Every structure is written in C-alpha cells, then in structure tokens.
Amino acid sequence: MALELKSAVKTPPKRVRVRIKRFSPETGREWWQVYEIDTYRGMTVLDALLQIKETQDHTIVMRYSCRMGVCGSCGMIINGTPRLACQTQVSMVATEEEPEFTVEPLRNFPVIRDLLTDFTSFFEKHRKVKPYLIRRDTVEQENPKTEYKMTPEEHIEIYPYSLCISCGLCVSACPVSASDEGFLGPQALAQLWRYTADVRDEAWVERLQIADDENGALKCHFAASCSAVCPKAVDPGGAIQMLRSALLKYKLGLWRKRKINGPVPPLEVSKEKVPLPPEAQPVDGADVEAMEREPVVIDASKLLE
Ligand code: SF4
Ligand code: FES
User: Fold this and answer.
1) How far is CA 179 from CA 13, 168, 175, 192, 215, in A?
2) For position 252, what pLDDT does the model report?
C-alpha cells in the first residue's frame, strides 16, 4: 500500500496505451482493443476510460457512478488485479518504461458486455445472509421511540465490516468463488459476521446456521486474497475466520452470545440552564428570557431597506 501511495503522487507517462478486453454478447466474440491517450497528473483509470469513450470509441461499456470510491460500481481487473477504476491512478499502473496497462471485466461474474458485469447472484447471496437487524421486540422496531444501545467498544467490533461498499472485488479475487458458484463468497460472509457480532441483533443462531451451510464459511480455503484487494480494508478473510471460530464454539457449547442490548431510555430533558460562553453574551438591554419565551421573528424585507 505504501508503494501505491508513492506512485499515486507521481506524474504518469505523458502518453499511455490502454488495452481493454471487449466482449460482444451478440456474437459471443472476445477481443483485446488498444487505445492511446494523453494523460495528466492525477488521472485515474476511470478518467482514462471516459476519455477514450468521449474522444475515440463511444461503444465501450462499463459501470461507474460516484467517481470517488464510495458507490462500489467501477470494479475492474486492472493489470491483473481487482481494483476500483476511480481509485486507481494511471501512475500506479503505467510507468515510463512500461507505458501500457490492461483493463478487463471482474472475474467470477458473468460479463454482460465489455467491462460491464452482472451482479444479480452477488446481491442474491448478500440478501441470503439477512443483512439487517433482527429483533423480537417488533413493536419497538415498527414504532421506534428511541434507539438501541451500543457502546463505542461494541461499535468498534463491527465497524470495519460495516464499511463494505459491495464492489465485488473480494469475490473477483476469491479462488473458491472462481470454482464454485454456490459459495456464498467473502462479501456475503463478511456481512454475515457483521450482523452476528452486532450486540443489537437477536438472530445469531439463525445466522450461524447460514454460516454452517454447505456453501458457507467452511468452504473458504483462507487464501486471504479477498482481504488483500478490498479497497475499504474490510478484511472479509478475517470475518470468515471469526465466523468459523464462533461456529466451532457454538457446536461445542462454548460460545456464549453477549447480552443483547435493548433500547436506551428516552433522554430526560434537563431544566438546568446552560450558561452562554463569554464570546456569546447578549448585547446590553436585550431581554434574553423574553426572547426565549417568544422567539424574535426577523422581517427579511426590513433587512433589504
Ligand atoms: S468486502 Fe471489500 S472488496 Fe468485498 S465487496 Fe465489500 S468493500 Fe468490496
Ligand atoms: S465510481 Fe463509485 S466507486 Fe468508483
């Protein structure tokens, strides 16, 4: 990562060749197409692809949206590694000595056209792990009066896994997903652990059963390539190990789920007056209490006079 940061602040070669893997669903033909473009400092691979699309070949198909590493839609194989195109600078993948880089669609996903892949099965697997809080107090769930308790320490336990942007890079890097379509995959399993470890969730037995399924956590070979490519440092490989450990302890009768946190009591409204800071004292003659009782209405038309 340190090396990547170093090359991200470098200037890319003035001109680069971009080798793009194309696919036509009409003919079933796959081919590599090469484009040459001028670059600039800070240019990302997504910028390069958009420049090609705008100035040379509008037929290239790809998916992107936020251009800032948040939406997770621009995942591609760049120089052989799953990466976000908007987070990868040209200077990270092309050098003066080797002014060329390759772009391919994500592996382990059906290709729709060119760089566009089909995420239907990915999101079906995500849904399978029930990625939401499940509780018995349905009344509070339907008509929330307050919020569920969670201490900062409890939040830290699940925080890294909650950063997932569903980009699919981990699934694309996973050797088990490559050979077994049924495998839930690192993204769904990381989310399974995120909710199992959440002290507000009450469905941990149900979740451990999903992890114990023949397509669940035990299928992982722990290659850890998922964690190596994750752009948000989610560490799905670590999450799967946590799931396996919880599963083993559960089966041996050793796993004790922490207490389930309930809703916090509604806050008491304090009658105590909070003193104004020295720099915010009212002007002489202002009756602050009267202003609190009856807020002053400012007539905007008078301001313009
Ligand atoms: S775990 Fe990481 S690589 Fe996998 S989908 Fe989430 S953000 Fe992307
Ligand atoms: S365009 Fe949103 S993550 Fe790249």
Assistant:
1) 38, 16, 7, 22, 12
2) 92
Write out pLDDT tens, residues 131-182: 999 998 888 888 888 889 999 999 999 999 999 999 999 999 999 999 999 9
Q: In this structure, which ligand is nearest to the CA of 237?
A: 1
List all residues 6 or more positions away from 16 whose beta carbon is below 8 Å from its beta carbon: 36, 37, 39, 48, 90, 94, 99, 100, 101
Q: Of 167, 171, 191, which is best to mutate to test ligand 1, by the most ligand atoms within 8 angstroms of its C-beta?
A: 167
Which CATH number is associated with domain 120-251? 1.10.1060.10
Rg value, the chain, Cα:
26
Q: For ligand 2, what atom is nearest to the CA of residue 67?
A: 1
DSSP state of 286: -
C-alpha–C-alpha distance, residues 137 and 208, integer Å: 21
Confidence of residue 299 (pLDDT cuts 50, 70, 90): confident
165 lines ligand 1 (CB under 6 A): yes
Looking from the CA of residue 163, the nearest atom of ligand 1 is: 7
Place of tokens 């602040």: 9
What pLDDT is attached to residue 3? 57
Residue 281, amino acid: Q
How far apart are the CA of 276 and the centre of ligand 1, in A?
Answer: 47
Indicate whether 2 pLDDT > 80: no
Which residue minimizes the CA distance to atom 1 of ligand 2?
A: 67
Is the model more confident about 304 or about 302? 302
CATH 1.10.1060.10 region(s) of the chain? 120-251
Domain with CATH 3.10.20.30 in the chain: 2-117
pLDDT computed for residue 12 by the predictor: 93
User: What does CATH list as the number for 2-117?
Assistant: 3.10.20.30
Give the relative orientation of helices 204-212 and 185-196 as an angle to the nearest 10 degrees: 150
Global pTM value: 0.86
CA distance 88 to 92: 7
